[in-house]
Sequence to fold (121 residues):
Amino acid sequence: MKNGSKFKRSLLTQGLLLIAIGAVFLLDQLRVIDFHETLRHYWPMMLVLFGVADLFQRRSAWRGLWMIAVGVWLQATVLHLLGLTFRNSWPLLLIVLGAGMTLRAFIDTVLAEPKEERRER
Fold:
């Protein structure tokens, strides 16, 4: 039963993705939006969206957080938010990735302790 629901969820996601892509291309053809210009400025948001999707899967939640962090950093540099560029903001990315690794090690250690205590009882 679970495999069937996973298949349906995957099919639903693929269908919604096709509808979204078709709508974007239709709006581009109708000259409502300039798809190429939009894509040029907002392509890092695709990483953020994939990261958000990964958050809902337990096995890949950390990967989702990494994708969101890198996507937000890339988006900030592409749009030059707060004056950030690739050249002046790469240390910020290192700090965020290091903080994430430290947080993960801490959380994995804290979550592993109760399991070990339960086994000893």
Notes: The chain has five helices and no strands.
